[in-house]
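Hey,
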Amino acid sequence: MKLLVTGGTGYIGSHTAVLLMQAGHEVVLWDNLSNSSARVVDRMAMILRERPLLVIGDVRDRAALDALFAHQGFDAVIHFAGLKAVGESVERPLLYYEHNVQGTLTLLQAMAAAGVRLFVFSSSATVYGDPASVPIREDFPRAATNPYGRSKIIVEDILADLITADPTWRIARLRYFNPVGAHESGLIGEDPRGTPSNLMPYICQVAVGRRPQLRVFGDDYETPDGTGVRDYIHVVDLAAGHVQALDYLVGKAGLLTVNLGTGRGYSVRDLIASFARAAGRPIPYVIEPRRPGDIATCYADAQAAQRLLGFRALRDLDRMCADAWRWQQQNPHGYDG
């Protein structure tokens, strides 16, 4: 198929695009480069021996999207473009609703006008809020604790309403847990602008000497070691889930909603210890107060994805850390050097 991948030069988008192209699909990347680098396309070309097309644009720009769809003739869209920092969303909620909700709505309108009705959406485990129990199943109540999570709930509801109104749509809502790691080549990985908002890239930058120490937000949660517990999933496993979701939708109309996680929780201190083993050096850290919107424990029940898609996360925490460290060692300043 010919696929539009929005946010295609971003962390998850670039890894997914590589797997999609390796599976034989033609891919066009669409990105405004607000939190990514065009240099990722050169790295993808080194992995693939083929260069994907990058079109610079914003999902809020309807005219540009209409022109793109008219020119390219896509079969499906995989939508990663959006903002994703929980703390920033608490501070700047309007910005998050504009990008994540209005941007997706504009994209869907352009798709409808072009007759493209196969859509894979990048949702998040933040839609579950602070769950009453774990592991988290897809039928659990949704109750986000921050504007980022609420923006994902709003889009999920838009997609459900859309498919009720027009059952010819084929839509997947993929609820990610915590993507980490990098491509095994070390050529592409996570390279956030400014101070990382996620744990793994911050650890990477501490280990490589770019930052003096890791800030751990809270050690008084009701967890085995007091730090937050999350379901970390290797980004390549997550990317494989998108390929499998796309294959599933080709054969079935309707709405697919699945968790993409490992089904196991690791604490912040677990991740620090695993990364220290991978890097062969200690990771200095300090404990700071909890951040607004953070929760104690979050990990997936991954059985639905396994049953429906044949999805299974193959890479363990040590592999996640080893691949992330290889990327950071080879690219101490990310794509800029």
